[in-house]
């Protein structure tokens, strides 16, 4: 049973506020001692019946705080059942249970969608749920984790002016969903000295202010989309070569040692984003052919954007020199190019207007593809949106106002959306019953309803993103939504450059470390993708272990993953604590070297260091190389031939030889 506030001793209801797509809110003061047993608890169901307006509120106390002045009681804030829609996830029946992921097919009517969403809310509204006056159909929607009130707003935005609010309905609250623009008009009577006691239900104006404004009006509206893009698939690219061994490097060029794959002139930005079969994906791929035979694939190579000239990708192709010359290197690329902005504008001729409004809508874009089945063109849709927006931004001035009406009985026509006929048919946007002053404060406007509701929704979205109420975006991954929203230029991954002297990523060679030696594997399943990477880690190392006698000993292993890179470091760390190690002085002189067992000439390191003296040796004279022979620049592996491997169809059998550079 609800507590009636009009009969609660010491309680004064100050106001009741009504607005669309929100809960009706009541504020009341209870002037009793703070230790009084008559103070109502949060969650108490309350109602309020006004002597002139009748039943005005049914809901629950949602907040209680001390009164404005200490010691003067408490203040109650109460809300009706609409608030429960913001606290309840929308679900639908699937199989034998329910899920919060709701899919609505394209063409679903607004009334059917609302019935589905509100199927679990009937218990909140004993007076029922009324849906009338809202028409239209929906696009395909697939969302989850949203509360019922959010779903209602998402659905009603596809109607002309659908709104939702809760009515007291004689004590049985009812959820009403209706058309904002279908309400009957009301006429305000302007007061005079001869009218001091208006009849019941007569809307007598007591004070008001209304006017027109050019705020938010512009002579020109420009909308900017995400841009124009094209996806190249297998485009032939220009390749430049690094200097040959022995040739001077350019000290002013930090990328002199790399192969470069240049974009054509005029292309200044690369993207990895592309569309394939309705999916939004990311990839940049370079296919490289060396000497007309070897084919390598580079995924997401790094790219450089110089201050002058076109951008270029970086590649390293090790071990491909043939007779100290570079073989032919060809490249084909899969990437997306940014072609420029997507802008549409609408201008008016009204001399009262000036200035330009610029809006960004990056869910609109133009995308073309070498595979034309993936093409998307939003330019016409963006132009249509700009035209619709300009009807608000540049054709008329806004009329707004705030009026006060003397409370004298309830007028059934006065509700949200009612046009006031003698005030330019501005519609009632908000009602606030000031029950102390006995006034109804009307907020009027001719601004289309959807605009303030969308602004309020955006604020709510920002708040809930950081809170516990999920705000899940549409799960439809179709490119038509936001494939290029918030795009950024592609930079690639610097790790995808193969180190000099090794095979490039994606080649069919790899290496394993076996007993301290690098062994080549057929295919990419080895531990290391390049010989250089293997040689850096493959070799002897040492671990410190404790034997059965409790002595800590250094134990060799045939790889480079031990605790110590050499025996001396292991011993210096205090590992050799027993008598199993002796010492010897090498012929080349100190430092003394440890010897496992008793084979060393000295029992301790100190004895060895006292006798071990450095030996001075004269360095051998270096003979100059013959004038007719080039200097020795080392050797390099080159491909001798490559033939089809009959035992493994689709693979090449390669023969490599090592030749001297130069």
Would you kindly provide a written description of the structure presented here, covering whatever features stand out?
With 662 residues, this protein is mainly β. It folds into 6 domains: 3-79; 86-93 and 105-181, Phage tail protein beta-alpha-beta fold (3-Layer(bab) Sandwich); 183-214 and 397-451, Elongation Factor Tu (Ef-tu), domain 3 (Beta Barrel); 222-391, no CATH class; 509-611, no CATH class; 631-662, no CATH class. Helices cover 10% and strands 36% of the residues. The strands form 11 sheets. Strands 1, 2, 3, 4, 5, 6, 14, 15, 31, 32, 33 and 34 form a 12-stranded mixed beta sheet that branches. Strands 17, 18, 19, 22, 23, 24, 25, 26, 29 and 30 form a 10-stranded mixed beta sheet that branches. The chain has a 3-stranded mixed beta sheet with strand order 10-13-12, covered by helices on one side. α1 runs antiparallel to α2 (148-156). The longest helix is centred in the last third of the chain and has 16 residues, at 450-465. The chain starts with a strand and ends with a strand.
